[in-house]
Amino acid sequence: MIINNSIRNRLVWLLPVLVLGLTTHAFTREVAVTLPDAQVDASLLSAGHEANAVFAGGCFWGVEAVFRHTKGVKTAVSGYAGGTTVAPSYEQVGTGMTGHAETVSVQYDPSVVSYGQLLKIFMSVAHNPTELNRQGPDHGTQYRSVIFYTSSEQQKIAQAYLTQLKDARSFSAPIVTQLVALERFYPAEGYHQNYLALHPDNPYVAYNDIPKLEELKRLYPALYRP
Prior knowledge:
two-stranded antiparallel ribbon, single chain, Peptide Methionine Sulfoxide Reductase, Chain A, alpha+beta, 226 residues, disordered N terminus
């Protein structure tokens, strides 16, 4: 199988881990705890309509997979946001010079799952919000933690939830998640879409991303979709 060079580079970290015989995840999954519901929350659109939530939290393969398995989510698309380069490629974003972050755009039905619930899943299962400009084995601003809001309602809910988690000291380390208005989302190349489902035996996926689905099912069974 031919593997894209950028993807191959993402696997380099795995060899020393396997040699050492470690059985834990590539980073401390302190985030795998149940977080409180958002105190400020509301359905952004009436029942039967779609709403859009946009998140960046490290490699988009795992974040996308988590939301694909969340009830009420209609589509989850991997892509790029937050930078200045128009229609960037994966290789360009990987240099860290475009300003973009690996991002997932989530279309969902707010009559089934609320924006606040998506925030809770993002902050507790999809990634670690205490890691600055990295996520586990991946380093660089392209792996930063960002909530991209698409409306003033989303901004209000997200800001209130971040404050709520900080005040509650839900994490032992400071939350570094940025809250930024979405300007433009660029879908990633086709081979990145639904990557976990298509490549479940990929070592990176098996080691870093499949455990996120297990935590989603364990912590939020009412929101988990097989």
